[in-house]
Amino acid sequence: MSRRAPPGARTGAAGSGSTSSSALAAINTEDMCPVCKTIRYLNKDMEFLINPECYHSMCSNCVNRLFNDGPNQCPYAGCHRTLRRKGFRSAFFGDLAVEREVDIRRRVAAVFNQAEDDFETLRDYNNYLQMVEDLTFDLVSGTDAQRRAAEATLQQWEAEHKADIERNRKAGREADEQSRRRLAAEREAARLRRIEALREAEEEKRERARSREEELDSLAHGEAGAAGGAQRVQLKKRGQAVASRAVEAAVKTDVAAADVGRLSIRGLKEKKKAPPPEGPYDPFGGLDFVPSRYKLRPELTHPGIEKYKVDPAHITGGYNFDEYTARAMFEAFAGLGVFIEDEKEVGIGLSAGDVATMSAGIAAVGDNKMELA
Amino acid sequence: MAVSPLVAPTSDAAQPSQFARPTSSPFKRQASAVPSSNGNGTPRYPPHARPPAPDAAAVALDPIEQLNEDEKRKYVKGKKLGEGTYANVYLGHVRHDPATLVAIKKIKVQQQYLDGMAPDAVRELKYLRELCHPNIISLLSVFSSKDQNLNLVLEYLPLGDLEMLIRDVDRVRYGAGDIKAWMGMLARAVWFCHDNHVLHRDIKPNNLLIAADGDVKLADFGLARSFADPGRRMTANVITRWYRPPELLFGARHYGGAVDVWSVGMVFAELIIRAPFLAGNTEVEQIALICKQIGTPTEDCWPGVSQLREYTVPADVVPVWGKEAYMGRFGAVGPDGVDLLVRTVALDPKKRITAREMLEHRWWRTDPKPTRKEDLPRKSAGGEEKMGADLKRRNGTVDSDSNNRGAKVARKLDFGQAK
């Protein structure tokens, strides 16, 4: 569907055009009906309407004239869409491309209205959002083929998941309702607070006037100023008490208002699984490094290390010859039973994606390694 | 684009080897500090060789660069979690899955070691690549970025470290079951290291990071090494002082897994009393504290000890305390727990319990049961920065006195941060 720059578009074309024709261009793009060529000068109340079928805009007079007698073809040259009177409305956005995109998005959102709670993991949800966004993009600015494909997908999905969509819509409406109610409650609370505050202020003012009068009176009667001061202090205190009470009340209403919102149980997931039965604690964490191919005997030795076994520096420092023999034996047997070809095959199966599950695997692999040794 | 000194294994056959390492010995590939990709014959620059000048502007990357580039592209580096003299730590995520977070530890080029990689970085790499265990921080990948910077991709542990929990007396409460669970994980990690012939040599609450699911993970292998052959001398200058065993304080050059076990015992004691058990400001003071709190090492309880190079103890000999002496202070873990503690802090390394024996101890089977890791106490805030702070630290102690004071100050600052 080929669209011209809509008359309402404030794309800056007027500004960027040559200076001599800029005034004319402004009139042209903004205020002339592309169908009947009427300009605003002639019709002050000219209103442009569009039809979401093709988003070609025309003035309301043209719409009345052309479509009052039932469906008719779009008057734009080359646009052969059949439009109805009913479909026309005034555009919300000046840029009709935006208008169209918003319409499409609204439509897609009405169909793909799953919430995050419907998904197992955040990742799934994100993937879903990505898919929806891709589809929307195809619809908005894809080629014809892409648009058709996307349209087909959309319709198919709508047909297949009618019940789900309806349910989600209802849920969404409920949530909207909730938030609306909460907002209303908050606004109401705020209004009450304001009234209260006004009343307080009024009260205070009156109080102040009265105390001043009293003071003047007392001065006139020549009484000691101390009494008046004390009273004033008292009055002030009372004012504070009233104020603090008001704050408390406001907080309470706030809490109550929040409670209204909290009543909803949406998103509440009862996913408590019974913990797996715990076995006895295994200090070794399931690992065992006892060599399977040979046995370590404590008296194992080698002529090369005999002299160190009697060396006081080694003995006193806690050098452990068993550790040495264990390592020597381990290294001697290390390569046996390892077949690089097999490992390669195993290796291909592992990908970088396994990083996440790695720690779980480590124990098993570590075990494996030692068994091979 | 310079040639990387590193060959990070990528894709197909090389890929699994970094996670699941079914190949025989963990020491198979130890000869080169840099793990090659399964020995498939890719040429490799020795770590100390400077790469050729980057003249060709990487028109065609050679295979090694390509591998490195691929590996680098797998991760997206995010905000900086911490900066230290030794390394910067960044938060990152896997490129194709933003939900999988990683910590990228970018090791700074150090002036001292311009011609190669810093030894602590090499150590960390070498051993972390070999050890795969749920209670040991896993190294997911290694790549070099521009300027030959070494980047270690580590698993992301958001909940801080054990020290944070120990220090926050006001807000974190834990009981015997929790201590048992943490100690169980620590002992398991140490046992795993030792059974794979690796000495950690820097065990302390600071290096015990906590994963999102509550697992304790042993981190910071910058001082690790494999068990030495008989006759090979090792440095005695390892392990943070408070956690250093007497044989190292006395300058022993031939030692074994017992040094790590002492540190585990110190961590155990610290978990119970929620303060460092033996916090000496100097090595002399540390020895004095050990003599006072545990007993003076003498020829009676530790034959040959007086022959050690730096053997000096305070004049007044304190007999080695029995189990009863500990009951008052450490009774919270029950008599069996105290028994285990006493065995881990035996002065003579030969008499000290081994990591395996620790796990076989009856304490694990007595009540209360170790808390399930999901139910362990945790702190939600500040963990991220804490991991940044923990990873960027220079490993262990480097022992000139001034350095130590610096380390101590940093420590203090850390406490403030944790609160």
UniProtKB/TrEMBL annotation, chain A:
It is found in: Nucleus. InterPro entries: MAT1/Tfb3 (IPR004575), MAT1_centre (IPR015877), Znf_RING (IPR001841), Znf_RING/FYVE/PHD (IPR013083), Znf_RING_CS (IPR017907). GO terms for cellular component: transcription factor TFIIH holo complex. The keyword Transmembrane does not apply. Its main location: nucleus. GO terms for molecular function: cyclin-dependent protein serine/threonine kinase activator activity; kinase activity; zinc ion binding. NCBIfam families: cdk7 (TIGR00570). This is RNA polymerase II transcription factor B subunit 3. It comes from Parathielavia hyrcaniae. The lineage of its organism: Eukaryota, Fungi, Dikarya, Ascomycota, Pezizomycotina.
UniProtKB/TrEMBL annotation, chain B:
Residues 367-393 have a biased composition (Basic and acidic residues). Belongs to the protein kinase superfamily. CMGC Ser/Thr protein kinase family. CDC2/CDKX subfamily. Residues 44-54 have a biased composition (Pro residues). InterPro entries: CDK, CDK7, Kinase-like_dom_sf, Prot_kinase_dom, Protein_kinase_ATP_BS, Ser/Thr_kinase_AS. The keyword Aminoacyl-tRNA synthetase does not apply. It comes from Parathielavia hyrcaniae. It holds the Pfam family Pkinase. The active site is at 202 (proton acceptor). GO terms for biological process: positive regulation of transcription by RNA polymerase II. GO terms for cellular component: cytoplasm; transcription factor TFIIK complex. It comes from the Eukaryota. The keyword Kinase applies. This is Pkinase-domain-containing protein. Signal peptide: none annotated. Residues 1-55, 367-419 are annotated as: Disordered. Keywords: ATP-binding, Kinase, Nucleotide-binding, Phosphoprotein, Serine/threonine-protein kinase, Transferase. Residues 12-41 have a biased composition (Polar residues).
